[in-house]
User: Fold this.
Amino acid sequence: MQSMTKLQVGIYIGVILITLVVVFIFLGVIPGLRNQTSTSDIIIWGAYPEDMFKTAFAAWRKEHSTISLTYEEKNPNGYRAQILEALAVGNAPDIILLPDSLLHTMQNKLSPVPVISMTEREYKETFASITDIFLQNKQIYGIPFAIDPLVLYWNRDFFASETIALPPSTWDEFLTDARRLTKRTETGNIIRSGAAMGLTTNIPDAVDIVSLLTLQGGISIIDPATHAVTISKTQTTNKITTSPTETALRYYTDFSRREKTSYTWSHTFPKPDEAFVREDLAMFIGRASAFASLSKRSPHINIGISPIPQYSQAPVKIGYGHVLAFTVPLQSSNQATAWQVAVFLAQNAPALTIANDMGLAPARRDVLGAGHSFPPYSVFYEEALRARTWYDPDPARSFPILANMIESVAAGRDTHATVAEASTRLDDLLK
Assistant:
């Protein structure tokens, strides 16, 4: 067989190079006709004001003048329903700002991140551990950009008045401080609460707080990786078997039991943020996203913000939060460009701008590790790094299950039976 001529070799190499260029253009690795002609406008949906993204979007437009971004603000109430309706009629946007709690109900409608845009190793090295919730079955279903962690809000003046030098760092200290800070009438009615804990009806973050306590106890509600319902799981230490969820429920609900010395909260109180603004509450566990409104409504209050308390002698500090990510529907005809936009917006500068404008912590490890000069945000960053969450099959149905579990224990029902029932009901949601 005769050897190939230089001309033939050149032709083969040329064909290979042309093929690679075409493939890279199709995948969006290099600009090409696919992006310039068929992708001129990326539609983005979110349940937040557009002002929070304007600076980051402007940075994109500065570098990509041929591809515009159009943001459509949706009503937070019924956000999931709006997305599903759009998908049903074939009118889906190119990018959806999705909270982790909606991942399960949306996962089969989302495009996984192409390996060429981000690998699993790059993802884990780039984003905080809590964002692993968007990593399912070795596929990445979103590019995280913000974390909303739980933090401790406290009134510095109330603490000083009671000669309490520092905010509580453990739950034992939290309970002690709550007792000292609570003020009652002679008949026992609470006129100033030391801590907003114990109920769900007037504590919107009650399920999150109990979830936090459970995770700190060593188990999850529903495991993020395996999707196994673990809320009723027990642990054995020094031959003593305990249920972290039952321990969490007893601790939490005792704050609402009048017969307990830990009694600091009742149904008569408004929501924690309102009670705090009225100076009828000394401390509460709330989301970082509550800070902007809280500080605006109470400029006269010396607000303290600190990390979440931990169990005494806990080997690892654990926080709790929620993640927001850029996701791309399978229905989008501009998937390659949409992921290009998502990856760009999750870079250091855009991610930091978006997080600051939203009053949240960014999702990137390097940005979180650098800290923040504004004290409240520095706490948000710390808690975002240690935050965890659980795999929620459907918040519209799981929340009532867990809220009922809490209220049942607060009303005196057997804790073990209540947790077992909640476990069964959560398991049904995943079937």
